[in-house]
Design a protein that fits this description.
With 158 residues, the chain is an all-alpha fold. Helix content is 54%, strand content 0%. It is globular and about 45 Å long. The termini are close together.
Length: 158
Amino acid sequence: MTWEQVKTVIQRMCLDVYGKKAEIPADWELAAIAQAVAGKAEQYRVEPVLALAQGILESHFGVNPAAVRSRKTRNIYNVGNVDDGGNRFFPSWESGIGAYIHLMAREYLYRNEGDTVTVEMMVKHDFVRPRGGRYATAPNYTKDVVKIAERIRKLVGE
């Protein structure tokens, strides 16, 4: 998936959804975020549709008015932002994206099933990593990611 397609998905499924209500921090730049997602996904072999679906589910890439924590920490995916209130801060949006994608490649790849972390791989294992531990505590997390991934694929013509 090209960074331009990633940009279109974020525009249509995040910014357009909230319109004038979207919370866009001064240092949040659509092209830079799209390039980070596409580039890191390719580098670490994480399916861009998965990265987009999780970013949309977690915080609509930080523009959801309710995503205060994601904006405060520059942590779109809430990596390390745990339910007990602990936060992980990043110096830039791009570094937070890189940390999420690197985590998915390092911790969630089932090597005997392929060399890329995909939506299908995560669905098969309900977002549980090979060594144990689930990505999110929300009971419908997997189903919600699947629904969003289907919309993304339709939007980009996959």
